[in-house]
Structures are given as structure tokens and as C-alpha cells.
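Repro:
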Amino acid sequence: MQCNKVLLRIVIELVLVVIAADIVTQFLLPEVIPSLPDYASRVLDMASSALIIAPYIILRVLSLWRNPPREEATPVESSMRDVMRPIFLIVILGVGLTSIVAVWLAREAHRQAEYEFDGLAERVKIDVTRRMTEFEHGLKALRGLHEASEVLTLSEFRDYCKVVDPVACFPGAMGQGFIRQVQKDEVGPFLEWAHENLGGDFTIRSAGSLQNTSDYLVICHIEPLALNRQAWGLDVGSEANRRAAAVKAKSSGLPTLSAKIDLVQDNLDQNGFLYYLAVYEQGKPLRTPEERQKAFKGWVYMPITSELALDGIVWSGDGKIDIEVFDDRAVDDPNARLFVEHGYQFEDHHANADQYMALFEKSYYLSFGGRHWTVLIRSNPSFDTSGIFMRPAITVAVGGIVTLLLVIMTWNMSAARLRAIQMAESMTTDLKAAKEEAENGVRRFTTIFNGVPIGVVVLDEHGNVIDSNPAALSLWEAKSAEQIRGMSLLDQVAWNSRVDVVQGLCDALISKPSCIEFEMMGLRGTWRRIELHSVVALNTTSEEETIQILTVLRDVTEQRRAEEDLREARIKAEEANRSKSEFLANMSHEIRTPMTAILGYTDLLADHQRDRDANTETGEYISTIRRNGEHLLTIINDILDLSKIEAGMMTFETVPMRIDVLVREVMDLMEVKATAKGLTLNTIFETKIPMIVHSDPIRLRQILVNLVGNAIKFTEIGRVRLRVSYAKSDKTIRLSVEDSGIGMTDEQIGKLFQAFVQADNSTARRFGGTGLGLRISKRLAEMMDGDITVTSEPGVGSVFCLSLMVDDVPDDQWITPSMARGQNNADEEVAKNKSKKINSTALQGMRVLLAEDGPDNVRLISFHLRKAGAEVFTVENGKLAIEQLTVDGTVDGELRSPPPFDVLLTDMQMPVMDGYESAIRLREKGCQMPIVALTAHAMAGDLQKCLDAGCTAYTTKPIDRHRLIETIQRFHPAAKEPIEI
């Protein structure tokens, strides 16, 4: 009867546990854990059920195996109830902690996945915007062609399209063309003109059913004609969507996109649309729609298919997303769909795609050409395969295993205790106490010896094995201690380590500390790196006393491998740092090279405009281009400076300099900006200051120009003042820039020196700027052992104080305020010499070989050199430059003697062979001709790199005309003074 009751209770408990596990996995888990992929959810459900059910089943099986049900309960069975209490507590705690960790990991996995999806979606959105913007750029370039010509002929248009192939340059565009508005009463003269200029087979064809219009909007030019012949002569005004977009483009003057249409030249039945841009006559006002109507000449346009324009866009999201694009926000209207692309292809698309539910979905509303598009982005199964979703299931499995092990360990300990109690009851009291004491001692020794995770081996004085624990057996690769008993440790040691092992054992015998490492081979041939600690031990018996060596063997193979991995990781990190430096250098080159052409040709335009004495408005346009180009160059320099500072690659020099001279130079430089805003700019020397200080004048000038420039920028009315003083208490020079500008709050000051941050967004919109200047100035000051502090009051003004530490100054090396306010005649003479114009034959008679791969820069540099009198020969790379200098015109040939040129001016970044390699090869051949490096790199060490390659001199891009001529003139046989271009 008792047995039946126990079995019935176990069955009922098992049923309840299964029901509880099902409730947890079906109802509770979905409430506390965010959405996970299907496979991850199924694994988590199974692991959760096992976590709840498995400990109970195993516990009950052990209980029945150890103590089968009996009719009457024994004292031992009564004690078992006390044993079960801690076991149930362990199960409850294990399940609870594992559940908490699993829920947290599931939420964290969902958050990380959502963050990753947002990044992929943003990349796709940016790529869509970029692709559509390229069409606008193409239309604007085509409009410039038409506006620059009174009447653009068909041959001129086709020549332009050969250079700017619309199909190749603007993926998705089927061509580009020009649309002319023809009144219906002017059709006859228009057709006569068209047959004469466009072709005898030109006709006007209808694109739709609109009949009540007074004009035709005829496609006159369309290239490539072979792909678009069906659209040639088409009246786009005869179809509602085409006409509506054309009229809007004409009225607004902006690029205008039509609604979705069927392109007549598209044979694939794709979603098409037209992109219009109105063309107006040059010089006429275009402020109002009426003025634009009077100046209207026609439309440039592109026929585009969305399938081709957006093809492959999913790979901007690494193929982990699906994308749909709709016209306007009608995402539920299939007719509004412009584009669809899937990054994951189901084997059975219709069956599986309908069942699949995306984890994440995001919509963007973008505007192109006056049309509003909805970009709908969803995650797909490729996104769901991330390993982070398996972490909760793995956590549940590990937690269940740990809980189970703890239950078994507790059960074993309790069972051993019960067996000891049962054995003790059959003995007398004295025997029971003695036996318990002996057993406890043996148990402790056995537990320590067998349970320690480090190998322990007892050796005799000759190094032979007496005994070993299980951990040592795994190192020896032995099945039992009997297998290695009597074997010599030295037999398993590598030959090159045996002397060290013998020495270590000898040191242990004389009680010296011993710790050595060696290679040990197991019985199955596995080599391990072992760390050996040994100590002498005496074994005393009733008959004799023997000497034994207790050794501890620790496997350090993985530890040493990890240390080696760390060393390799450090090497890779250093290589990554070098790669970053090379990236910054290449970025500088790639940005500065086009800036050379922009600023250089702007100067040429300015000179040409001054020579022709053209109108002032054109001069203002040119000045605007140069001013913005220089502003862009300043931003580039700031970004590179910040990158060098953050990377620890900024270098400084320490030279003697005069603070008063530097201050006057900065204030003279900023006087123009202050005068333009009607501000008073002055300097006050409050105390005497050191005559000579040792610092970096270039970086100090950069800081002062930034501080004074900021003060002028943020001051509308009043003055800007620079105070210079010396503080004896801390031996610092203080340069305080005061303004009466907008001021700042404490909160704004707190984030003032962060990169790309200004006081607030309204400040950035009102005054402009990147927010880099103060960040760079602050870091430069700190790296020169100084600091910049700020005090400010909203509406009153701000004070930026630059403090610099100076060395002890002799008594005769001070400048009084009156001396500092005086003008330096030597500085005036230098300024006069810099502004002096001299003759334009500075390079007369020189033969210069120019190696440059950029055609724009070739024209610009050649123009400056030829204007200075030089004879210039150009090549496109370093290989061609060497061939110009060899007898047989090959790279491996002997050099011509004497050289045919006076100097080689070479860019350092070119295809085929760059300037560094060509300079090295020429010097290896014995070339003595001067080589001048021309590079857009702006990183520290570029000058030394050019000199190490064999270059004689160095100049940078963008081109400084004075410096370029002066550098080349140094190698003129009869040097003259540099000219002013």
C-alpha cells in the first residue's frame, strides 16, 4: 500500500511539472522575451522545458534507485526528507537565476539586432538618395551645355553624350535628351527645321490621349538613339503625368520627377518615370514663374526605370534586408510600387515568403524631384541567422547542466553521509568514533589528491614514478596509475630539457626552490608544455625511511599559446596603426589633389578677369569660389589635424620666437575680417613679457588665429581685444581674447571643446563652422604644456584665455608694454620683400620634366612654370619619367649624360609607378639631377619619406605658386628672384 502511494505521488508530481513547463514556454516566455527567429524560439522552448523537467526526473530516478519504496519507512528514509530540502532549494535557485540571465540575454540580443538593422536600413536609405541625386547632377550638367550655347546642334549634343554616356554614367537611365515646346500653329516651320537639323525621318508622335492642349512638348534630341528611337519625336505633353511634371519643372526651375509611367522605349515592362529640368536663356532674371516663362528654352530630361536605377540596392544592407519603394505613401497599393528586391531567396518563394514574419521593419519618406517616395525596409532570414539569438538557449542549457551537477553533487554528499550513519549504527561507540576519524582523514587526502586539477606525481630519488593522481594520468596519457608506476620521468622529457629537469630534481633534494618548464611527451605521443614544481618528502615506515620527491606538473601549453597570441595581436595592432597613418596620408592626397585644380584655376580665372577688366559681378563669383575653396581646405586641415592628434602622431618643434611679433602678425591677419564686420580689433600688453620664448610658432599661430577668428565670427557689434600678460606666480604667459559677442551659458561651455560640436544647433545654423577649431586648439595647447580656459556670460561676451608655461627669463630679456606696441622694422622689411614684384623670367632657359597623372593639375602646373619662362615636358607616371632620362627609352636602360632636363618635378602618388619608386630607381642608377617632390600628403613624416626616397626638395598641394617657382628656381644654373604670378 505504501509503495503504491509513493508511485502515485511521483506520477502526479511529474504531470504537474510537465504542465508547468508547457505554461512557461507557451505563455510566459513570449511575454518577457522579445521576438526571436523561429529556430531560436524553438531551441529556447525546448531548453526551457528541459531545464524545468530534467532535474526533477533525474532526482526522482536517483531517489528510487537508492531507496526503493517500502511498506514502512525506515529511519534512513526519514532522514532522506531532510536531504531533499537543500536539493529542492538548489533546483529553485538554479532555475530562477538561469531564467533571469536568459531573459536578459534575449532582450540584449533583440536590442543589438535592432541596432544592427537600423544601421543597415540607414545605409540603404543613403544609397537610394545618392543614386537619385546622381540623376539631378547629370541633368544640371546637361542644362549647362544647353545654356552655354545659343543653338545646340545635333552633332554637339552627340559629342557631349559620347563623353557623358548616360547609360554608363547614370545606371538606370535609358538615355538623356532635350524637349522643345512647339505651339500647334508653329508645327510646320518646326518640322522643316527638324528635317533639316535632326533628320528627314523626324515626326511628331503622341504619347497619350490629351487633345485639348495648345502646344506639343517634343523630344528633339535623345541619346543613345539606338535604344530610344521609339521616344524620338514623342510629344510628352500628350500624356497627363508627363505633361504635369514638365509644366511643374518649367514653372519652378527645379529638377522634377514625373509619376510612374510606361516608357515607350522600355521593352521589359518596367516601372519608368521621367526626370525634367528646365533650360533658360542666360542673363535673364528667373526670380518668378513669369520671368522663368519668358526666359524658357526647353527641358533637358532623362527616361529612367526604377528597376535599373535601384538594382542591387539590397547589397548596401549586406543582403540581410528586403526593400520595397512606393510612390507617395501608398504602401498598400500594388500600383504605387516602384521597386522591390529581396536579399534572401526562398526555395519556394510563395509558400515560405508568406509564412515568414520579419523581425524588424522600417519606413523612410524621401523626396526626389518634387515626388515623395516611401522606402520600406524589412529584415530577412539572412539577418535572423545571427549567433546572438542562440545565447539565451545556450544559457538555459548551461544553467540546467550546472543545476543538475549541483543536485547530483549534493545528492552524492548526502548519500555518503547517510551511508556513514548507517555504518556507524552497527558499531560500538569507541569503534565508531575511531573509524569515522580514520575515514575522514582518508577521505580528505583522497579528495585533495584525486580532485586537485593539477597533476601530482610522487617520484623516488632516481626520478621513477611511485604514485600519481588522475590529473597527472591525463598528462601522461595513461589509463591507470599502475601503467606508469616505475617509469622514469626523464624518459618523457625532450632531449634539450633533460639537463634542466635533472637540475630541478637535484635542487628539490637539497631543499632549494625548484620551478622549471619543459616539453613532455605523453604515452600516445602528444607533446605538452609542462611547468614542474618539486619538493622533497620523507616516507617513514616501521622498517626504514625513504626519500621521495613530490612533484606538481601543470599543463601550460594553452597559457603559452595565449601569450603568443597576445604578442601576435600586439603586432597586428601596431600594423593597424600604421595602416591608419597610411589611410590618413592617402585621404589627404585624394582630397588635396582636386583642391589644387580648383584653387589654381580659380586664380587663373581671377587673373584673366583682371586683365580683361570684366564686370565686378564676375569677379565676385570668382572670389566666392576661392573663398569657399579655401574654407573647404581649412576644414580638411582641421579634420586631419584632429585625426593626427587623436592618433598621437602630431609633432611639435621647439624654437626661439617672439610673442609680440607673433601677436602683431595674427592681429594684422584678422584685421580684414574685423573691419568687414565693423568691429574694433586691438591688442593690449598689460605687463612686461619675455623677449624670447621657446615654443612651436606654427601651432601657437594656429591657436591664436582660431580664438580671434571665433571671437570675430560670434560678435556682431562692439570690439574684439587681445590682452597679453605674464603671471610671475606660475611663470605663464596669458593671451586672453575678449569679445562683446553673444556669450554662452555654463551648459554650452561644458560641451564647447567636443569635436563637431558648437554651443547649440542655432549657433551652427547662424554662424556656420564644424566645431573642430576649439577642440584642436585645446588639444594643441595641452600638448604644449598649456591650457585654454573660458569665462562667458550670455549677451555680454566671452573670454578665452591661452596659458603657456615659460622657462626662467634673464633680467635683460624682457619687453615692456611700450616696446611691444612698437612696430618691428625688420618685420616690415620682410613684408615688403614678400609683396615685391619681379620679372617673369625667373625660370628662363630651364627644362622641367613634370610627372603628374591628373590632367587638370598638369595644365595648371605647366601654365605656372611656362609663365615663369620654363620649358615644360609632361609624362603621366614615374615609369615614363625614367624612360625620358634613359638612352634606349626603357626603365632598365642607362641614363643619358648630360641629363636632358634641369629638374624633375614629380607627383608622389601615380599609377603604374609612383614618385617614391621612380626617385629610388633614378638614384640607384646614379642620377644627380634635382628631384622635387609634389604631393598632397599632409601627414607628419611625409617630408622625411620623400627625402629618404632620394628627392632633393618638397612642395605640397594645393599649389602655392610663389613656393613652387621659388623651389624650382633654386636649381636654376643662374638663379633669379622669384616672381609674383
